[in-house]
Specification:
The protein is mainly alpha-helical and 68 residues long. It is built from three helices and two strands; from the N terminus they run βαβαα. It has one domain (7-63).
Length: 68
């Protein structure tokens, strides 16, 4: 189909935006909350983001009384 374009729907997380782009999608449907999260990540150090996420999980598990 020479005029067909690939559409990516049901974006559930920011990672899906990168996956859609890598797969060559011409159209990506994005919920407003995911778009907001993606906008906040522009220029953010992904290593720092990963470390912050791990720290949040550890703090939450400690607050819940879980032992790791």
């Amino acid at each position: 189909l020479p005029k067909a374009e690939l559409l990516w729907a049901s974006t559930r997380e920011v990672l899906n935006l990168f996956q859609a782009e890598e797969s060559g999608c011409a159209i990506i449907t994005i919920p407003h909350d995911i778009l907001g999260k993606a906008a906040k990540m522009i220029g953010f150090d992904l290593t720092a983001l990963s470390l912050d996420t791990v720290k949040m999980f550890v703090a939450d598990s400690n607050a819940a009384g879980f032992k790791l």
